[in-house]
Write a structure and sequence with these properties.
This protein is α+β, with helices and mostly antiparallel strands. The protein has helices spanning 36-42, 47-50, 85-96, and strands spanning 9-19, 22-31, 55-58, 61-62, 74-78. The protein has three helices and five strands, in the order ββααβββα. A five-stranded mixed beta sheet has the order 2-1-5-3-4, with helices on one face.
Length: 115
């Protein structure tokens, strides 16, 4: 293959969630050797570069603004959690009660609890 025919652009998917239960995915065509910061500026999301409460990741692994993107990368922006997932699960379990969750949700007629 001729070097002059190399890809001059890369395709990157940008995924972020501005609010709970709302996910936005954008397909970006960026110049080769673009960095994460370039992708955010291209998508007009510069506010995430200054706000340190947001975390950046590529395919679920943390990254930095200076990371060079590869073709077909998935760039993800993570909002800070408002509630610890363990605490939220514990509170839901206490509210629902032990008999309506997990193994105890469905029982056979005449069967023991948990079977």
């Amino acid at each position: 293959m001729d070097k002059s025919l190399e890809k001059m652009t890369i395709s990157v998917t940008l995924a972020y969630s501005p609010a709970p239960r709302e996910v936005i995915e954008k397909e970006l065509a960026l110049p080769a050797h673009s960095k994460v910061q370039d992708a955010l500026e291209f998508a007009n999301l510069q506010k995430f570069t200054t706000d340190e409460s947001y975390t950046l990741g590529i395919w679920g692994k943390k990254t930095t603004l200076n990371h060079v993107l590869q073709d077909l990368d998935r760039l993800e922006l993570y909002r800070p959690l408002k509630v610890d997932p363990k605490v939220a699960r514990r509170e839901r379990f206490q509210k629902q009660g032990a008999r309506t969750t997990g193994l105890f949700a469905k029982t056979r007629a005449g069967g023991k609890a948990g079977y």
